[in-house]
Structure formats: structure tokens, C-alpha cells
Amino acid sequence: MKILNLYAGIGGNRKNWGDNHEITAVEYKQEIADIYHDFFPKDKIVVADAHQYLLDHFKEFDFIWSSPPCPSHSKIRNEAGVGSGQNKPIYADMELYQEIILLMQMSKMKIFKGKYCIENVIAYYKPLIAPQEIAKHYFWANFLIRPLKIISRGHMLSNKELMKIKGFEINDKKLLRNCTEPETGLHILDCALGKHSQQTFTY
After folding, report:
1. Residue 148's closest CA among 133, 162, 164?
2. For 140-165, what is the HEC assignment?
3. Domain that holds residue 134
4. Secondary structure of the chain: what % helix, strand, coil (to 5)?
5. How many domains is the chain partitioned into structurally?
6. pLDDT (tens digit, 9 = 90+) per residue, 41-96?
7. CATH classification at residue 195
8. Predicted TM-score (pTM) of this structure
């Protein structure tokens, strides 16, 4: 398949996808794109605004994964951080919903004929469009994602423990914490391909 991996980061969701697909990864920061390239040299890497790239190129792909920035939606950031005075209030970034609406509508109209999955954190508000809640995250997709239980995402673990969970040898806790677990990424791609086995992963 031709796969578009938006807001690619260092490639947590992509890690277990293998090399049998034609993958285009879009990442805004050159230094992070360089790290992604080190891990996945066969992928086409585009340093660009993922939000605009989606609008310009969505029709070219069979499967689209998008992970827009999550801090402005985060329940943890808002309830714990803002509530305690540690973080300042910020507007929720509505580009998330722009992408959901775009792909929902293009799919409905059959302008986009592939599968898509948009991922984000559990929000501090009731989602404006109902998601599927899988593995402690929200997913908006045009296919059913089978249950997948993640006991812990490991945010409070040491960098060494996070490297083991995420499967990347990189000394950057923030990048590791921002990664979707590779098992989750593979599970969702398998669901998009019609492989519906239910699995449980415990960390």
C-alpha cells in the first residue's frame, strides 16, 4: 500500500509496519526527520507542514495515519497542569477536527477511497466528533479498530525503560513519550487491512 504517515516524529506507530509498503512520512522539524530517517531509511521523508500536506495529497494514498499535536487537548495537561497552576490555559487546536472532517467527508463522497486513522490523546472535554477509544487514546477512523489493552504508556518510567517499551535506542525522553506504541500502530494497520484479531499487551 501507499501509506501517508503524518506528524511522523521518530516513527513509533510505524516501527512494526515493515518495509513492504511505500511509506511517505511528513515531519515539520528537520532534526526529528533526520532521526526518523536513521530508523527508516527506505521511507520517503518530507519536511513540511503535515496539516497542509494532507490537504494537498490525501487522494494519493491507500492508508493515512495522522497524529496531530496533542497538548492542547490533553486531559492530563488541563486537569493536572492547569488546575495546579503549572501550565497556562491554551486554546484547543482545532486543526485536529479539520482533519477528521476532511477525511470523513472525502471518504463519504468516495473522493478518498482508502482507509484513514487520526490519533490523539484522551481529551479534557467531550469530543466534538465521537472517536473510538483504544489503548488509552482516541482514534477517528473509517474502519473498526478491535480492542487493544495497554496497561501503561510508561510516561513516568525512566528513559531506559521507555527505550525498551518503545523499541528505540535514543536518549530523549520527550520524543519517546510522544511515540505511539509500535504494537498499537501495527494493530491498527492490521485492522485497516481486515486482520481483526484481539490482542492484549501489558507493560
Report:
1. 133
2. EECCCCCCEEECCCCCCCCHHHHHHH
3. 2-201
4. 35, 20, 40
5. 1
6. 999 999 999 999 999 999 999 999 999 998 888 887 777 666 677 878 889 999 99
7. 3.40.50
8. 0.88
